[in-house]
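User: Hey, my collaborator sent me this sequence without any context and asked if I could get a structure. I don't really work with proteins. Can you help?
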Amino acid sequence: MMSIDFHIINFDRALRVLAGVLQSAQPSPAAGVPEQAMNDEDRRKSAGLMRVNHVGEVCAQALYASQGHFTKSASLRAQFMQAGQEEMAHLDWTAQRLAQLGASPSLLNPLWYLGAYGLGALAAKAGDARSLGFVVETEKQVEAHLASHLTHLPEADLKSRAIVERMRCDEIEHGAAAQALGAAAIPSVVQGVMKLVSKVMTSTAYHL
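Assistant: No problem. I've predicted the 3D structure and written it out in C-alpha coordinate form, which is a compact way to encode the shape of the chain:
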Protein backbone atom coordinates (compact mmCIF):
# COMPACT_ATOMS: atom_id res chain seq x y z
CA MET A 1 0.00 0.00 0.00
CA MET A 2 1.34 3.44 -0.95
CA SER A 3 2.15 5.85 1.87
CA ILE A 4 0.63 9.28 2.26
CA ASP A 5 4.09 10.67 1.57
CA PHE A 6 4.01 9.16 -1.93
CA HIS A 7 0.73 10.94 -2.71
CA ILE A 8 1.99 14.22 -1.29
CA ILE A 9 5.19 14.03 -3.35
CA ASN A 10 3.22 13.32 -6.54
CA PHE A 11 0.76 16.15 -5.90
CA ASP A 12 3.55 18.57 -5.07
CA ARG A 13 5.42 17.62 -8.25
CA ALA A 14 2.31 18.13 -10.38
CA LEU A 15 1.83 21.62 -8.95
CA ARG A 16 5.47 22.50 -9.55
CA VAL A 17 5.37 21.16 -13.11
CA LEU A 18 2.36 23.31 -13.93
CA ALA A 19 3.75 26.33 -12.10
CA GLY A 20 7.01 26.03 -14.02
CA VAL A 21 9.20 26.00 -10.92
CA LEU A 22 10.80 22.57 -11.29
CA GLN A 23 14.54 22.92 -11.73
CA SER A 24 17.22 20.36 -12.47
CA ALA A 25 20.77 20.22 -11.19
CA GLN A 26 21.92 19.12 -14.65
CA PRO A 27 23.23 22.03 -16.72
CA SER A 28 21.57 22.60 -20.06
CA PRO A 29 23.41 21.24 -23.12
CA ALA A 30 22.98 24.76 -24.52
CA ALA A 31 24.80 26.43 -21.63
CA GLY A 32 28.12 26.77 -23.46
CA VAL A 33 26.64 27.30 -26.91
CA PRO A 34 26.74 30.88 -28.21
CA GLU A 35 23.47 32.60 -29.09
CA GLN A 36 23.28 33.36 -32.80
CA ALA A 37 21.32 36.22 -34.35
CA MET A 38 17.95 35.16 -35.77
CA ASN A 39 15.27 37.09 -37.58
CA ASP A 40 11.78 37.35 -36.11
CA GLU A 41 10.39 34.55 -38.26
CA ASP A 42 13.09 32.08 -37.22
CA ARG A 43 12.76 33.08 -33.56
CA ARG A 44 9.01 32.46 -33.68
CA LYS A 45 9.60 29.09 -35.33
CA SER A 46 12.12 28.05 -32.70
CA ALA A 47 9.80 29.21 -29.94
CA GLY A 48 6.91 27.18 -31.37
CA LEU A 49 8.98 24.03 -31.65
CA MET A 50 10.49 24.39 -28.18
CA ARG A 51 7.03 25.02 -26.74
CA VAL A 52 5.95 21.71 -28.24
CA ASN A 53 8.98 20.02 -26.67
CA HIS A 54 8.21 21.59 -23.32
CA VAL A 55 4.64 20.28 -23.51
CA GLY A 56 6.06 16.83 -24.23
CA GLU A 57 8.05 17.03 -21.01
CA VAL A 58 5.01 18.19 -19.03
CA CYS A 59 3.24 15.09 -20.37
CA ALA A 60 6.22 12.88 -19.49
CA GLN A 61 5.99 14.03 -15.87
CA ALA A 62 2.28 13.20 -15.82
CA LEU A 63 2.73 9.80 -17.46
CA TYR A 64 5.45 8.62 -15.10
CA ALA A 65 3.59 9.94 -12.05
CA SER A 66 0.41 8.17 -13.14
CA GLN A 67 2.06 4.88 -14.07
CA GLY A 68 3.97 4.91 -10.79
CA HIS A 69 0.77 5.62 -8.89
CA PHE A 70 -1.23 2.76 -10.36
CA THR A 71 1.35 0.00 -10.64
CA LYS A 72 1.18 -2.70 -7.97
CA SER A 73 4.93 -3.29 -8.13
CA ALA A 74 7.00 -1.35 -5.61
CA SER A 75 10.16 -1.78 -7.70
CA LEU A 76 8.45 -0.55 -10.85
CA ARG A 77 6.97 2.39 -8.93
CA ALA A 78 10.50 3.36 -7.91
CA GLN A 79 11.60 2.99 -11.54
CA PHE A 80 8.87 5.32 -12.78
CA MET A 81 9.70 7.87 -10.10
CA GLN A 82 13.38 7.73 -11.10
CA ALA A 83 12.49 8.13 -14.78
CA GLY A 84 10.37 11.17 -13.95
CA GLN A 85 13.28 12.63 -12.03
CA GLU A 86 15.58 12.15 -15.02
CA GLU A 87 13.03 13.73 -17.39
CA MET A 88 12.89 16.76 -15.10
CA ALA A 89 16.11 17.97 -16.71
CA HIS A 90 14.41 18.08 -20.11
CA LEU A 91 11.53 20.06 -18.63
CA ASP A 92 13.95 22.58 -17.14
CA TRP A 93 16.07 22.92 -20.29
CA THR A 94 13.09 23.54 -22.57
CA ALA A 95 11.63 26.06 -20.12
CA GLN A 96 14.94 27.90 -20.00
CA ARG A 97 15.14 28.01 -23.77
CA LEU A 98 11.59 29.32 -24.11
CA ALA A 99 12.46 32.17 -21.76
CA GLN A 100 15.60 32.95 -23.75
CA LEU A 101 13.50 33.11 -26.91
CA GLY A 102 11.07 35.48 -25.22
CA ALA A 103 8.25 32.94 -25.40
CA SER A 104 5.85 31.41 -22.90
CA PRO A 105 4.93 27.78 -22.20
CA SER A 106 1.66 26.42 -23.55
CA LEU A 107 -1.44 27.98 -22.03
CA LEU A 108 -2.99 24.51 -22.14
CA ASN A 109 -0.41 22.79 -19.92
CA PRO A 110 -2.98 21.86 -17.24
CA LEU A 111 -5.05 20.14 -19.94
CA TRP A 112 -2.03 18.33 -21.37
CA TYR A 113 -1.01 17.17 -17.90
CA LEU A 114 -4.45 15.83 -17.03
CA GLY A 115 -4.79 14.06 -20.37
CA ALA A 116 -1.38 12.42 -20.06
CA TYR A 117 -2.11 11.39 -16.49
CA GLY A 118 -5.28 9.65 -17.69
CA LEU A 119 -3.39 7.82 -20.44
CA GLY A 120 -0.78 6.70 -17.95
CA ALA A 121 -3.50 5.36 -15.67
CA LEU A 122 -5.02 3.35 -18.52
CA ALA A 123 -1.60 1.93 -19.42
CA ALA A 124 -0.92 0.96 -15.82
CA LYS A 125 -4.31 -0.73 -15.47
CA ALA A 126 -3.40 -2.94 -18.45
CA GLY A 127 -0.61 -4.51 -16.38
CA ASP A 128 3.05 -3.80 -15.81
CA ALA A 129 4.29 -5.38 -19.05
CA ARG A 130 1.85 -3.32 -21.15
CA SER A 131 2.61 -0.23 -19.08
CA LEU A 132 6.29 -0.63 -19.90
CA GLY A 133 5.33 -1.26 -23.52
CA PHE A 134 3.51 2.06 -23.47
CA VAL A 135 6.74 3.70 -22.32
CA VAL A 136 8.68 2.04 -25.14
CA GLU A 137 6.20 3.19 -27.78
CA THR A 138 6.02 6.68 -26.28
CA GLU A 139 9.78 7.07 -26.31
CA LYS A 140 9.93 5.72 -29.87
CA GLN A 141 7.44 8.33 -31.06
CA VAL A 142 9.12 11.10 -29.08
CA GLU A 143 12.52 10.21 -30.53
CA ALA A 144 11.12 10.41 -34.06
CA HIS A 145 9.43 13.69 -33.23
CA LEU A 146 12.70 15.18 -31.89
CA ALA A 147 14.61 13.96 -34.94
CA SER A 148 12.06 15.78 -37.07
CA HIS A 149 12.59 18.96 -35.07
CA LEU A 150 16.30 18.83 -35.83
CA THR A 151 15.42 19.18 -39.50
CA HIS A 152 12.97 22.04 -38.89
CA LEU A 153 14.76 24.20 -36.33
CA PRO A 154 16.48 27.23 -37.88
CA GLU A 155 20.11 26.48 -38.66
CA ALA A 156 21.23 29.46 -36.59
CA ASP A 157 19.48 28.19 -33.45
CA LEU A 158 22.41 26.20 -32.15
CA LYS A 159 21.18 26.36 -28.56
CA SER A 160 17.83 24.70 -29.27
CA ARG A 161 19.56 22.15 -31.49
CA ALA A 162 21.95 21.17 -28.68
CA ILE A 163 19.02 20.65 -26.29
CA VAL A 164 16.92 18.64 -28.75
CA GLU A 165 19.82 16.37 -29.74
CA ARG A 166 20.62 15.59 -26.09
CA MET A 167 16.94 14.93 -25.39
CA ARG A 168 16.73 12.63 -28.40
CA CYS A 169 19.63 10.51 -27.14
CA ASP A 170 18.16 10.37 -23.64
CA GLU A 171 14.75 9.23 -24.92
CA ILE A 172 16.36 6.36 -26.83
CA GLU A 173 18.02 5.24 -23.58
CA HIS A 174 14.78 5.50 -21.62
CA GLY A 175 12.95 3.37 -24.17
CA ALA A 176 15.70 0.75 -24.10
CA ALA A 177 15.58 0.66 -20.29
CA ALA A 178 11.82 0.04 -20.31
CA GLN A 179 12.26 -2.69 -22.92
CA ALA A 180 14.88 -4.40 -20.77
CA LEU A 181 12.47 -4.46 -17.81
CA GLY A 182 10.08 -6.72 -19.70
CA ALA A 183 7.93 -4.48 -21.86
CA ALA A 184 5.20 -6.13 -23.91
CA ALA A 185 4.25 -4.75 -27.32
CA ILE A 186 1.06 -2.72 -27.31
CA PRO A 187 -1.62 -3.25 -30.00
CA SER A 188 -1.18 -1.39 -33.29
CA VAL A 189 -4.52 0.34 -32.83
CA VAL A 190 -3.23 1.85 -29.57
CA GLN A 191 -0.07 2.99 -31.35
CA GLY A 192 -2.25 4.69 -33.94
CA VAL A 193 -4.31 6.47 -31.30
CA MET A 194 -1.12 7.64 -29.61
CA LYS A 195 0.14 9.12 -32.89
CA LEU A 196 -3.19 10.88 -33.45
CA VAL A 197 -3.20 12.36 -29.96
CA SER A 198 0.41 13.46 -30.41
CA LYS A 199 -0.43 15.16 -33.70
CA VAL A 200 -3.28 17.12 -32.13
CA MET A 201 -1.11 18.11 -29.19
CA THR A 202 1.88 19.25 -31.24
CA SER A 203 -0.16 21.24 -33.77
CA THR A 204 -2.00 23.03 -30.97
CA ALA A 205 0.93 23.57 -28.62
CA TYR A 206 3.01 25.14 -31.42
CA HIS A 207 0.67 28.15 -31.29
CA LEU A 208 -0.78 27.93 -27.77
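In plain terms: The helical segments are 4-19, 40-70, 74-100, 109-125, 128-152, 158-180, 188-205. You can pass these C-alpha coordinates on to your collaborator as they are.
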